[in-house]
Amino acid sequence: MATEDVSESIAVHNPPKRQIGILTIFRLGLFNLGLGLMAVLTLAVLNRIMISELGIPATITGGILATSLFVSPARVWFGQLSDRKPLLGKHRTNYVLLGTGIFGLAVFLAVQIVWKLGGVVEAQGSWQWNSQTIGWSALLSLVMAIYGLAVSCSSTPFTALLVDITEEARRAKLIAIVWSMLMVGIVIGGITGGNIFKKIEVGGIAAGNIPLAILQPPINSVFSFVPFLVLALALIATWGVEQRYSRFSNVSGNSRESDRDDRIGLSRALRILTSSRQTGIFFTFLSLLTLGLFLQEAVLEPYGGEVFGMSIGETTQLNAFWGTGILIGYSLTGFWIIPSLGKKLTTKLGCILVIFCFGLIVAAGFTQQPKMLQLAIALFGIAAGIATVGSISLMLDLTAAETAGTFIGAWGLAQAMSRGLATFLGGIILDLGKNIFEATLMSYGLVFAIQGIGMILAILILDRVDVQEFKDNTSQALSTVMEGDL
User: Which candidate, 127, 107, 94, 172, places its Cα nearest to that of 397?
Assistant: First the structure.
């Protein structure tokens, strides 16, 4: 069977469907808004409680929370599974809802284990390695691993759904809106979390000295309510979308599913995934880009505190400046920059601007003026938004529609593993800088300098990305697979 025959067969099984409207795009964004809320619970609130309030060492806290990212190889499997095996009749939607329900339960269980671990530390007076702390830490790591698997189960099929329901020319605007909603969730979660901490601290109890009896009730209420809210948002976001708009699923039902099961199993999907050298090139680019964007994630708030003398509340507000910048960057990129410059050139522009912003962040340290840091962080957000939307748009072009879940899983793997690695490396580089330099600013400057080097490497790899070569190679590989020659 020739390649054009494969395309014709797919067209028969997948007749053109109506195009999604702007309201449906915003409705889809509600799922990412929920993910943003969950990210605040795990990477801001839980992290803050463990380190600042319970006295659990930052290295242990970071290692436990990063467990959710280090299970990300499962993204490839979940993506491929959603390609092959419909869950209760749907290839994407029910995986999204199943994963959402599980990670909501996992995050609630996680905070309950945190209280147990914090109680042990409080009884001992400080952190000590013993059977209790090891046991609770191991259990918490297991729960966070389940959380990460559930996020993979939901987010990978959701992103594959975006490929299923859009044509290439319309994806930039969809990505700008849907990923903007992720940042809206993070901003809303950050503001809400900040208000909760303010209420807890009313009465003169300073952060770090709040008893567990006072801390638990409001935190438990948030960790009980938000998962239900996120599940409701996921239901609203995905309701009826796959049936109405997807070009992947099809009413011809059993014959199509049989074709998918028989012809594109995991081993063959992986062969398609590795059929083009462009897959490896783009995987490397995404990894370097993610490292370059998130190496400072664990050290930015301490930077504001140690170098600028900012309070906890003021450093928390840095997230709002960054998030606002991201939203501006997303909007500009999806509606103006990509249509004007194209996806690859837009991504390169974003990377160059990110490097420039790292210089501004370090320069702001010499002034020790918080407003200069806030401005630099806002500009960094805009630059990161441009680079992110550009790279995601490019990512969806480097995705074969017939195995979208598998490719999205691979790209998600690159991003998640790199982000987990960035969390660890940021702290390591900062500690290394403090051993080398006497000036605190220079220690933090080392982190931003290495981020800049990482972005330069990402740009060099980006120059080798060729979408047309990818499409030619994967199309030929798909044709071979469909013939059964592999």
Answer: 172
Residue 305 to residue 22: CA distance in whole angstroms: 42
DSSP code, position 164: H
Provide the b/e sequence for 63-90 (b: ≥16 CB within 10 Å): bbbbbbbbbbebbbbbbbbbbbebbeeb
Which residues neighbour 228 within 8 Å (Cβ) at sequence distance 6 or greater? 104
pLDDT bin (cut points 50, 70, 90) of residue 206 is very low
Main-chain dihedrals φ then ψ at residue 87, nearest 5 degrees:
-105, 110
Closest CA to 32 of 331, 245, 293, 234: 234
Point out which residues pair with 90 in neighbouring strands. Answer: 87
Distance of CA 172 to the CA centre of its chain: 18
Residues ≥6 apart with Cβ < 8 Å to 342 = none
Give the C-alpha separation, 334 to 188, whole Å: 22
The pLDDT assigned to 98 comes to 95
Q: What phi, psi does 306 have (nearest 5°)?
A: -80, -35
Identify whether the C-beta of residue 94 lies closer than 8 Å to the C-beta of residue 87: yes
* Whole-number pLDDT of residue 256: 42
| pLDDT (0 to 100) of residue 432 | 82
Amino acid symbol at 434? K
Ramachandran bin of 254, using left for φ above 0, alpha for ψ from -120 to 50, beta for the remaining angles = alpha
What is the spatial distance between Cα 225 and Cα 123, in angstroms, rounded to a whole number? 29
Q: What is the pLDDT of residues 350-395, one digit of tens each?
A: 999 999 999 999 999 998 898 999 999 999 999 999 998 888 888 8
Structural domains of the chain ordered from first start: 20-168+206-238 (no CATH), 272-476 (1.20.1250.20)
Considering all CA atoms of the chain, what is the largest pairwise distance in Å, rounded to the nearest integer?
A: 75
Tens digits of per-residue pLDDT, 99-112?
999 999 999 999 99
pTM for the predicted model, two decimal places = 0.72
Positive or negative: CA dihedral 63, 320, 365, 419: positive
